[in-house]
Design brief:
single chain; about 200 residues; mainly alpha; about 10% strand; binds zinc ion
Length: about 200
Amino acid sequence: MESLTEIRETKIIYDELLFDYLDILKTKYKLTNGHNCSHTERFFYQLWEDTDTFIQNTYGLKSNHADKFSLIVALLSDYRSFDKWEDVINDDWTFYDFPNAHGGRCCCNHRIHNAYVMKNTNTGMSVIVGSECVKSRMITNTALQTKREAAVKRANKRRRVEKAEAEEMSQQDDVMRVTLFEAMSYPHAKVNWGRWRGTEITA
Ligand SMILES: [Zn+2]
């Protein structure tokens, strides 16, 4: 598996050729400021193919996750106002967790367990990302890293609560199964129906 590298290590050169290509993508996929790229997975499969072709044609090389991530980060920002990858990374980005979104893919086509959203504050454009990709590839943006850590902490806490609730529900199911067994096996036995709190079954 590919290790997570910084955006600065992409093979894409931050130049006019890239900007022209990003202009084409914005027209092709009708991307304007405020666009939320999060839920259009089909769009991403096409975009990744386009990126493969761009990198092959421009540099004669195969593209990897780092290239795809970098390209999308540039696409989401006001790319012509910057001179280098470093400036794009250090642009104003925000990061938040995406409740109820589990699994899927990061914008770099990297499989993820937990989905997060990264948004460029200047363009208002956002995208689904994995927290590890942002951690490694946007490493120099310390403000973003602080937001990422807080969002991951919040999400982990929420998942712990959800898990505990699910476990409690399954324990209640066990109690119900035992009580049903008692009722069937010993029809005259006094069954503790009170243990079925919260259910609609009555004695
Ligand atoms: Zn990724």
